[in-house]
Amino acid sequence: MDFGLDLDKLQRELERYEFAEANLLRSWRNKVLLENGNVRDLMVSANVGIGIRVLIKGSFGFSFSTDPRNWELVLKEAVKLAKANPRPMRSKLSKEKVYQDKWVVRPRKSLDVSIDEKAGLVQETYRSLEIPSKVKDIQIYYVDVKAKRLYLNTEGAFISQSYPRTRIFLSATAKSNFVISAFESIGGLYGLEIFDKIDGKFQEAVNNAKNLLKAKRAPAGKYPAILDPHAAGVFAHEAVGHACEADEIVNGTSILKDKLGKRIGSEHVTIIDDATIPRGYGSYGYDYEGVPGQRTVLIESGVLKGFMHSRETASELGTRSTGNARAGGVSRFPLVRMSNTFFEKGDYSLEEMLEDIKEGVYIYSSTGGSTDPNSGFFQFTAQHGYWIEDGEIKQMLRDVTFSGNFLDILHNVEKVEKDLKVGGAGLCGKFGQSVPVGDGGPHVFVKEVLLG
Predict the structure, then answer these.
(1) How many CB atoms are located within 10 Å of the residue 117 CB?
(2) If residue 73 lies in a helix (H) or strand (E), which one and from where to where?
(3) Has residue 48 been placed in a domain?
(4) 308 and 446 part of one domain
(5) What pLDDT, in 10s, does the model give residues 253-300?
(6) Assigned domain for 1 exists
């Protein structure tokens, strides 16, 4: 992996300090925006940079440059900042195995084609759609990244990573006496084979936009509900995942701070964060501290088993890092972040979930949500839903929202489907930086949720 540097010299300079690490990144990005069949935006960009973090007497200093050849100045600035802290934070890092390794993901279909050819594939995707007259606007956004990352530290780590990451997002907007939209997103560590993954999903989103014009408003009140795999995945990420990020625990800002080893949900609830899912959108080989991405059990059979850690939070809580120190590029300080977060599969079929519902709601996908990790209060908006009556899925519902305390939801989970689908692709923001994440899971039956 060529960054045009004397890496041996860089390594020697890092070893002069109590702890120091360097993350180098070179990436190539292509973007295509299609609106109603017309290409509205094309972008090709290349980025390169280096970020260096230094630990001196318990205080971190961090600096970066878009030119790795300036690494000596970057290191000097990081050292200066670490020494300048008037109130040392007394940060420490957990002891971890040191790796010299290469982690490579190769696309099945190369991304090494022109941006015009990629735009042509997006246009073909659009032309394959059957678009009802009520659907007035369709946007398709495609982005791919080829990335090469290099990590070095004081301890002798030397890790190179090379991988693709692609995502396609469709938005379909329908209009009558009001306007409403439906969405679909597909992503992963793919090359151009991502276009083979669409498989009717975009057509379904277009049809949903049209059908939502005739949908009834969701009722308000408490009802039993079935969360589809994407809605369940977003709930696992937003409600549970953020509360299980160990910096929230260390800072005392998570409702779970004193609940390790305690029951916080029903026996049917097992929630995982897993950076090792093959080609998952949130997957990676090693985090920004040189720790391998891992499968971390957060909740097992309703009992809180663990948190996601960086080396710093792991040291604070007397454990090992889970490889969840991530950053939105080498210009950013690593934070505790999720990867692919989901409910583990259970023992039931969807039909077995439906048969116990006299009146309830099937919650389809999600347009987003938010949670206060300190109180556990969450609020989510679904793309839409369906009314369930006497065990059968009936008419479509729009304006589906549900809220409450996520611990109540976890205790109300009564059945989890035996089929697992992890494939969601999104971006998660925290302290001004975003990282790619995945979600999904099985269908999840909750005996009572608050709608409206």
Answers:
(1) 9
(2) helix 71-84
(3) yes
(4) yes
(5) 999 999 999 999 999 999 999 999 999 999 999 999 999 999 999 999
(6) no
